[in-house]
Structure formats: C-alpha cells, structure tokens
Write a structure and sequence with these properties.
The chain contains eleven helices and 13 strands. By secondary structure, the chain is an alpha/beta fold. Helix 2 links the parallel strand 2 and strand 3 (about 50-55). Helix 1 (about 5-20) packs parallel to helix 9 (about 205-220). The longest helix has 23 residues, at about 130-155. The radius of gyration is 24 Å and the shape is elongated. The relative contact order is 0.11. Bound molecules: 3'-deoxy-guanosine-5'-triphosphate and magnesium ion (3 copies).
C-alpha cells in the first residue's frame, strides 16, 4: 500500500533523489605547449579528483574533444605553431561544443590582448603565474556553472527529467554506442491511460501531480544508468542500456504495476491511474537508428492501448 501523495512531499522526495546521485568527476582538457607545465596542471587536477588529459597534437583537437568530452578546456594563448584563440575558434565551429567553457591561461597581461583573445569565444582569462588553488577554484566554479546551465536547458521544469530534444539525442547516442559495443539497449515509450479524463475530472493541477508521481517512481525503480525523459505532455521515454528482454520486461512491468497501486487524492475523492508501455530492443532491429527504434516502441505502445491499456508490450 502506498500513501496518497501531495505536491510538497512529492517535490521533497524528488529533490532527495536528485541529491542522492553523486555528481560524476569533472573533466578538463589541457592545451599548452609547455609539456612540464601541462603535466603539472594535470597532476593538480588529478589530486583534486578532476580527470585531466593533455592535448598532445593541436590538429587533433576536435577528435580529442569528441573522444574525451571535456567539460572545460584550459588553453594556452601562445604556442609556437598555434594561436590559442584560433584553436578555440575551431572548437566553436561545432554546434555540440558551442557552450563548452574555454578558459585561456597565459602570461599575457596586456588587457587589450586579453579582451581580443576572449572575442574568439573564450569564457575567461587567467594569468600565469597562478596558484594551484586559484586554478582549481576557477575551473571548478566554471564547470559547476556550466552543469547548472546544462541542467536548466536540457531538463523539463515540472519533473526534472530530460526534455524532448535531450531524450531524443540520448536515444541516438545510446543506440550508436550499443552498435559500436555490440551490446543491447531497450527503448520504451510510456503513456498515461485515459489522462484526459483525469484532467477533466480532477483538474489540470492534479493531473500534474500524477505526471510528477510517474517521474518519481521511474527514478526510484530504474537502474542508475537508465535514462528517463519526458517526451511530451504525459508521455515518457526510457532508455535501458544492456538490458535483456526478460530484464526489460520485468523492470518496466514492475513500474506499471506499482503505479497502478498509487492512490491520488483530490478533495474528498481518491483515485488510481494506469499507464501503458511499449518497448523495442535494438537487437530485434539491427541497423536501425534511434528515431526508428522510437517508432517501433511507439507501435508497441499503440498496440498496448488498442488491446486494453495498463500493460507492457514488446
Ligand atoms: P490514452 O489512454 O489513449 O492515452 O488516452 P488519453 O486520454 O491519455 O489520451 P491522450 O494521450 O491523447 O491525452 C493526452 C492528454 O494529456 C491531453 C492533455 O490535456 C493532457 N496533458 C498533456 N500535457 C499535460 C500536462 O503537462 N499536464 C496535464 N495536467 N495534462 C497534460
Ligand atoms: Mg605557450
Ligand atoms: Mg498521449
Ligand atoms: Mg494518454
């Protein structure tokens, strides 16, 4: 038996769940022609639990960024064969990396030259010599800020789940990753049953509580590395990497069953809601991309709706 849920306690529990997940280690890419200095920075970062890699060959910057996926680039201004701002300009040409923080670190103290360098799309300018703790705190706060912005941009404000475009991107990424690793991934689409009726009977605000409750239940029941998004109004997409057919069915149907027992309250009445789930596995559709797999999941969902709702269909 699960107690009826109200908005404040829901929000509290969602926040608690958010905080329980530990933040992943930060990642910094160091670009400096002075190998000893670069290595020194790397050790400083490493001792502070920040993953750091040094770019050995500046012509490889895009490959390196795509492979290492840094959350900040620490860039020397003057290098014998390269001008830092030109390299920053190369990174900025890629839409994916348009918001990646780039921080120049140089002994250049001429303010005009600093400002000039910033115009190439850098976010900050630190001057050498710099103490280790100053460097760490500048880099940490930059990355934290970038993470906050990223969360605001990519997350749905009602539920805190990934929003439409972000979950779609995540599906594409996970499918191509699975293809590379020859592993399996399941993509599920979930839709609340007869939700119009819930809104019509109990009002839109109560409908929103139901939507939040699903988000919370999904966070609780899915595994840490599963990815959850709010695909549309009362539709959700779930990505389950490396999950067998049996496991997928078990995890998703467990969510469906549990949700059907949650009691919602509106004034003096109590009510329950159900959900329908359709899912597809990449292994059943070799060579298909993310959006194609989403269509397969949607077909399964449509079938679940047509044949009685409140069920999980592959
Ligand atoms: P079905 O079982 O076939 O899914 O029936 P349904 O009534 O749920 O039909 P449908 O999925 O088409 O209805 C979606 C409804 O969800 C319509 C819309 O008013 C409502 N809705 C969409 N977004 C929100 C939201 O953010 N909050 C609330 N409260 N309602 C929403
Ligand atoms: Mg230099
Ligand atoms: Mg719908
Ligand atoms: Mg619906």
């Amino acid at each position: 038996f699960i107690k009826p849920l109200d908005v404040p306690s829901l929000i509290n529990r969602v926040v608690q769940l958010f905080e329980r997940k530990r933040a992943p280690a930060k990642r910094v890419l160091i670009v400096d022609d002075d190998k000893r200095l670069a290595e020194h920075y790397r050790l400083v970062f490493e001792s502070a639990n920040i993953e750091a890699e040094i770019l050995e060959n500046p012509t490889e910057i895009i490959n390196k960024v795509n492979q290492f996926r840094p959350e900040l680039i620490l860039m020397d201004l003057y290098m014998p064969d390269y001008f830092g701002p030109d390299l920053a300009g190369v990174v900025r040409q890629y839409e994916n990396w348009a918001s990646l923080p780039i921080v120049f670190l140089s002994s250049e103290t001429d303010l005009d030259k600093q400002i000039d360098a910033m115009q190439y799309g850098a976010d900050d300018f630190l001057t050498k010599p710099i103490s280790d703790s100053q460097l760490l705190s500048a880099v940490r706060s930059r990355i934290n800020r970038a993470r906050q912005l990223e969360a605001l941009i990519s997350r749905d404000s009602l539920t805190g789940l990934l929003k439409h475009s972000s979950i779609k991107d995540a599906v594409e990424n996970e499918i191509s990753r699975a293809q590379r690793n020859q592993s399996s991934v399941s993509v599920a689409m979930l839709d609340i049953d007869s939700f119009k009726q819930v809104n019509d009977t109990y009002g839109h605000a109560t409908g929103d509580v139901v939507i939040c409750a699903i988000a919370m239940l999904l966070r609780q029941r899915l595994r840490q590395y599963d990815i959850i998004g709010r695909y549309g109004g009362e539709e959700f997409v779930i990505i389950l990497p490396e999950c067998s057919l049996q496991q997928t069915l078990q995890i998703l149907d467990d969510v469906r069953q549990r949700f059907s027992t949650v009691k919602f309250r509106h004034q003096d009445s109590e009510f329950c809601c159900t959900i329908s789930i359709g899912f597809a596995m990449n292994t059943d559709f070799p060579g298909r991309n993310g959006s194609e797999l989403l269509i397969q999941a949607d077909n399964a969902l449509y079938y679940a709706k047509r044949t009685g709702r409140n069920q999980t269909i592959n």
